[in-house]
Design goal:
There is one protein chain. This protein is an alpha/beta fold and 270 residues long. It folds into 2 domains: 121 residues, HAD superfamily/HAD-like (Rossmann fold, 3-Layer(aba) Sandwich), CATH 3.40.50.1000; 100 residues, Rossmann fold. It contains 9 helices and 15 strands. Strand 13, helix 8 and strand 14 form a beta-alpha-beta unit. The model has no long low-confidence stretch (mean pLDDT 92). InterPro entries: HAD-like_sf (IPR036412), HAD-SF_hydro_IIA (IPR006357), HAD_sf (IPR023214).
Length: 270
């Protein structure tokens, strides 16, 4: 394997996190559309990887297009679609019990799976958890008892919180999974970042080697460590952080996506 590039501009493929990197809630990050246009003009591949289990690649595509970022669903890798892919590879078409949004359910159905809700009388061998916006005490009981009866427990990601538009936090898939684990003693297998499987899906689909890719994101425990686990270089957007020690696997550090854009422009002109 050849050595990784030393400059931001020298990779062939750029994998961007979404919320906290390309956009903040419903607001596009300053400089993000310009950076992506700049990379594509230089014939670079631009992909997106997010722990989002609430939406589908199609709905994220519409959101990005509305922000001035051209994308295609096949360029967008979400925890929901990665989970659906793993289940198909490991189990084939299956009947799944799912606690999550309609987009998660449709993503799983698109892979050929049949879906039943946790409250159904239909028994399944697999239970899949996403960021369930309708989660309740009764649903917790239904989900936990399915696992106690032997269902395999999969969760789309391990994130405990999700940024809210008011600047606070909302519970994410990991927080709901923790409640189920507390009842059952069983922890789920997860598929979003920092699991290397998410990155391996991208490299397999585009016939990439790790040293061709750069992951750009703001979360050290998911974006940076996940890339490092897959052998991929990472660019950490520190935003407001004041780190004393860089996260393992960090190759480049910048404050914002605009800073990354400025650095790439400078490197390209040298």
């Amino acid at each position: 394997m050849k050595s990784s590039p030393t400059q931001l501009i020298d990779y062939s493929t750029y994998i961007f996190d979404l919320d906290g990197c390309i956009h903040f809630g419903n607001t596009v990050a300053e400089g993000a559309p310009e950076l992506i246009h700049f990379l594509r003009k230089r014939k670079k591949r631009v992909l997106f990887l997010s722990n989002n289990s609430t939406h589908s690649p199609e709905s994220i595509n519409l959101m990005l297009n509305g922000m001035g970022i051209t994308a295609a669903p096949e360029d967008i890798y979400l925890a929901s679609s990665i989970t659906a892919r793993f289940i198909m590879e490991a189990h084939g078409e299956s009947t799944l019990c799912v606690a999550g949004t309609d987009d998660l359910i449709e993503t799983l159905r698109a892979q050929g799976h049949s879906i039943v809700p946790p409250e159904s009388d239909t028994e399944t061998d697999i239970f899949v958890l996403g960021r369930d916006l309708t989660f309740s005490f009764s649903r917790l009981k239904a989900c936990a008892n399915r696992i106690l009866r032997g269902a395999t427990f999969y969760a789309c990601n391990c994130d405990n919180t999700h940024p809210s538009l008011d600047g606070g936090k909302e519970p994410e898939t990991g927080a709901i999974a923790a409640a189920i684990t507390a009842m059952t003693g069983n922890s789920p297998r997860t598929f979003g970042k920092p699991e290397r499987y998410a990155y391996e899906c991208i490299m397999e689909d585009f016939a990439l080697e790790p040293d061709e890719c750069l992951m750009i994101g703001d979360n050290p425990s998911t974006d940076i460590q996940g890339a490092h686990a897959a052998g991929i270089d990472a660019c950490w957007l520190m935003l407001a952080a004041q780190p004393e020690i860089l996260p393992d696997g960090t190759t480049h550090t910048y404050r914002t996506i605009t800073d990354v854009y400025i650095a790439m422009q400078k490197q390209a002109s040298e």
